[in-house]
């Protein structure tokens, strides 16, 4: 079945560092979403993207919808300890209905 | 406060037990979803309901039986589960189906099947 390739699988960084993660697909998408999941909780939507090339920020988070429509990245600037968690990308394929496809997640650890 | 609540938060059951998971959304949404989240795997969509009608069933074994009595409540009835069914079960809701109707997740039920 369709899969999203999300990388890196995990990251260990120092507080204050910038972080970048991305998702790629072999298919064209019309929606890219980024979620964060804290331990023991469900995913929370961070950023939604709907147009190729779209660049959207949410505080220290910035995400972009790739111009090829097959990828997206999420950047976190000046990381803080509460950024710890699992970040998931998700998307909808063009002409494939409304179902979301999820990546396997990037686990972020931040040391102070 | 996500607006989507799930009970119980943790459940341990034997393979011969029957139990139910409950989800309630307080957002006035019309679509609700069940997902299975296993370690190191992407979220797997199990069931989708829109206006209380099931619109998607992704080849889920019959030992999982969903019920949507109204647009605010969603249940997942469990019977004769297997140990490999142990996972985090997430409920989500959205205003409607389709693009730009994004899903809001509950905290999940951590299920362990012994």
Shape category of chain B: globular
Radius of gyration of chain B: 13 Å
Order of helices and strands of chain A: EEEEEEEEEEE
Would you report the number of β strands of chain B?
A: 11
Greatest chain-chain interface? A-B, 25 and 24 residues
Main β-sheet of chain B, in a few words? 7 strands, mixed
Count up the helices of chain B: 0
Could you walk me through the main structural features you see in this protein, from its secondary elements to its overall organization?
The complex is a heterodimer of chains A (112) and B (114). By secondary structure, chain A is mainly β. Helix content of chain A is 0%, strand content 54%. Chain A is built from no helices and 11 strands. In chain A, strands 2, 4, 5, 9, 10 and 11 form a 6-stranded mixed beta sheet that branches. In chain A, strands 1-3-8-7-6 form a 5-stranded antiparallel beta sheet, with no helix packed on it. Chain B is mainly β. Helices cover 0% and strands 56% of the residues of chain B. Chain B contains no helices and 11 strands. The relative contact order of chain B is 0.34. The chains are: A mainly beta (112), B mainly beta (114). The A-B interface holds A 3-4, 30-31, 33, 35, 40-45, 48, 50, 88, 90, 92, 98-105 and B 2, 4, 40-43, 45, 48, 56, 90, 92, 97-108, 110.
């Amino acid at each position: 079945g369709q899969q999203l390739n999300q990388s890196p699988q995990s990251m260990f960084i120092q507080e204050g560092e910038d972080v970048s993660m991305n998702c790629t697909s072999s298919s064209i998408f019309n929606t890219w979403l980024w979620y964060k999941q804290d331990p023991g909780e469900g995913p929370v939507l961070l950023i939604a993207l709907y147009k190729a090339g779209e660049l959207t920020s949410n505080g220290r988070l910035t995400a972009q919808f790739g111009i090829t429509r097959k990828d997206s990245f999420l950047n976190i600037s000046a990381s803080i300890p509460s950024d710890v968690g699992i970040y998931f990308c998700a998307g909808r394929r063009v002409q494939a209905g409304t179902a979301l496809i999820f990546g396997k997640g990037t686990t972020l650890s931040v040391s102070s | 406060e996500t607006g989507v609540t799930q009970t119980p938060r943790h459940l341990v059951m034997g393979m011969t037990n029957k139990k139910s998971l409950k989800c309630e959304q307080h957002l006035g949404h019309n679509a609700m979803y069940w997902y299975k989240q296993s370690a190191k795997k992407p979220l797997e969509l199990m069931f989708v309901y829109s206006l209380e009608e099931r619109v998607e069933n992704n080849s889920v074994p019959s030992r999982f039986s969903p019920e949507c009595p109204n647009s605010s409540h969603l249940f997942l009835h469990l019977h004769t589960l297997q140990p490999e069914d142990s996972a985090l079960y997430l409920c989500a809701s959205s205003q409607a189906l389709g693009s730009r109707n994004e899903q809001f997740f509950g905290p999940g039920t951590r299920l362990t099947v012994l």
